[in-house]
Amino acid sequence: MKKAAVVIVMLSLAHSVFAADFSFGGGALAGYTFTRYTLHGGSVESVQIMDRFDYGGFVFFDASYVVFAIMYQAGNGTFRENMILDDSSLADTTGTGNEAVLGLSLLGKYPFTVNERIAWYPMFGVEYHIALIQRRTTAGGLVYNRDGGRFMEDRDKDNNTYPLSAWNSLWIQIGAGLDYSLSGPLFLRSELLFGFRLPTSYEMGALEVIENLMNIQDPRLGGLTGKPALRISAGFRF
Questions:
Q1: Domains in the chain: how many in total?
Q2: Four-residue CA torsion sign, 208, 213, 215, 220
């Protein structure tokens, strides 16, 4: 489903590339990712709360109506995971975490000229994150990689360790950007985006764990992972 969504967006945007003006550039990004998920199933309720500051850099290739970008993003934040069964707490884990991803984005945009120096544009598209690091530090000071399967919550329904790719993620992005021409082909760009993340393989695996190990029928995952992000860059038009 995720791969199909990426292919559909890529095909719908690619036709405009051949008649477009081109530019490329790079810059820095900063953002804030928040997760608020609740897993319900029978007498079990599991709550996941995460807050993370993100930072990194990226390069982009712009074909007027389509922008492709490659980024490296790291992040540090806090987490809390609580599981309750019949009003009794089974687990209440808190701590800090850090992660790193390689990101690929494909966004469509429609430019509007304000004057000879300024243009703005709405944006919409997808971004795919490939997990590079998933590390946590518990409140007690224990540092571990989540793909090491040290704790039960990082193992699947068959008690196998999750691969790092289980934390790969697909985002739907919407936002707007502003270009300011400096001199000749040089320009500055600022973009403000908001992303909605689809559930990861790890999160869907948690549903299977609850269903199989606790014999609970039809558990459900509700909530949201979102991310506002600001990207500042410089570019060069061909």
A1: 1
A2: negative
